[in-house]
Design goal:
The longest helix has 18 residues. The protein is mainly beta and 121 residues long. Strand 5 and strand 6 form a beta hairpin. It has 1 helix and 9 strands, in the order H-E-E-E-E-E-E-E-E-E.
Amino acid sequence: MKKALSVVTVLGILIFSACQSKTIDPKIPGKWAGYQWMVEGNDSGRDVSGVTFSFEENGNYNANYGDQIEKGTYYTENDKLYTKGEGQIEKMVKYQLTGSDTLMIEMNRQGTYEQLYLKRN
């Protein structure tokens, strides 16, 4: 009987935690524009003037990488930002906010460490 009760309790906890809504860091929503892209600690030389992100409080986002546009849903967990573009798989990057106007996104793109810096518009 105790074993069955333990199993039911564990299943209840798992179901409850799976049903909880995704969280959004309240500092993320807003419009962001790229100003620097680093690769392995060096300036990539990429033109980031066309890189923009718009994160909405309802969990939707739009991203523009110059000639590439992406939209979908997002959420945050600890220092990680999860995005799922329409028709794509979920992606995860680390993020760090500095003050209220700078967002740094850390990526590992095929084994290459990259950092994208964005300013709030």
